[in-house]
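Morning - magnesium ion inputs below, output right after.
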Amino acid sequence: MKFIDSARIFVKAGDGGDGCVAFRRETYVPRGGPSGGDGGRGGHVIFEADSGLFTLLDFKYRKHFEAKSGEHGRGKDQYGHGGEDIIIKVPLGTIVHDEKTGHLLAEFEKHGDTFVIAKGGKGGRGNMHFATSTHQAPIKAEPGVEGEARWVTLELKLLADVGLIGFPNAGKSTLLSVISKARPKIADYPFTTKTPVLGVVSYQDKSFTMADLPGLIEGASEGVGLGIRFLKHVERTRVFLHLIDVLDPTHPDPIEAYDLIRRELKSFKKEFLERPEIIVLTKADRPEADELIEKTKKYFQKKKKKVFIISAAASKGLNPLLAETVKNL
Ligand SMILES: Nc1nc2c(ncn2[C@@H]2O[C@H](COP(=O)(O)OP(=O)(O)OP(=O)(O)O)[C@@H](O)[C@H]2O)c(=O)[nH]1
Ligand SMILES: [Mg+2]
C-alpha cells in the first residue's frame, strides 16, 4: 500500500478589474467632474478543510482552478463587481507546498479551517479618486492588479499508529515487509525509500498501521535529505520504533548515532522526545555484530530504555518486539 496520497494543482486567482476614466455629463458643462469607478477585486482561490473528505483523488481529474476576474469600473461612479471566490474542499491532514519554492503554505487540521492559496488582484482606482483642486479633470485611472497564480502540491498526512525511524539502511523497509503485506523497496544503498509506505500489521488479536519512512540524517530537521518532510506524517503516531544497525559503516558508534537522530527529532518537534520509543537493534543474524549489539543493548538498558534485538531476514526476535509495540498503542 502506498502511504502517500498526493496531487499537484494549478491555482489562479482572478485579476482585479481596471479603474475607469469617465466624466459626468451635465447640461451646459462640457466636462463634468470625474466619475470613473474602481475595478472590482479578483476572486480568491481558497482551500477549506472538510472532515467528510478522505482522499485527494478528486484532484487527479481536475487540476486547474481559476477564479473570475473583477469587473472593470464604470462611469457614473459605479464600482466593478468583485470576481467570485473559489472554495476548494480538502481533507483534514492536507499539507500544501508551493511547488516552485518548496515553501510550506498551509496545513489543515480542523474542519472549516480556510486558507487563501491565491489572492485575488486588487481592483484599480477609477479617476474619481484622482481629482485635486488644481487638476479637476484627471484622465488617470489604475489598471487592476493581476491575481496570484501558482502550482501547489498537496499531500495527505495519513494516520499511522507506529512510525519506523532511523538512518538510511537501518532495515526499516525490510522489517515492514516481513511483518505486513506491504512491499516497500529494499536495497543495500541509502535512501531506497523515498516516500512513506504504510503497512497493516497484525499481532495476536490486534492490528495496527505502521509507517516506513525515508531515512533520517544529520541536519534532517533543517531539511537535509528526505526524511524531515515526512516526519510530518508521523506527527500522530503513538510510538516510534527507532532502528539501529550497529555495523552501519557511516556511523560506527551506535550510541552516537542514536543521539544524533534524537537531536534531529527534538529540533523538528520537541514533543517527539516524549513519545514512547522502542529501540531496535537490527540485522542480528550477522555473527560479527554480536559483540557490539550486546554492548549497545547493555548501555540502553542501564538508561532504562526498551531495547529489542531482531533479525528481519531470519525472522528472529519479532514477536517480543510486536508484543511491546502493541502495549504502547
Ligand atoms: N543480514 C541482514 N540484512 C538485512 C536485514 N534487514 C535488512 N537488511 C539489509 O540491509 C539493507 C537495507 O535494508 P532496508 O530495509 O532497505 O533499509 P531501510 O532502513 O529501509 O533503508 P532506507 O530506505 O534507505 O532508509 C538491505 O540490503 C537489506 O537486505 C537483516 O535482518 N539481516
Ligand atoms: Mg527503506
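Note: The chain has two domains: 1-157, 162-327.

O.
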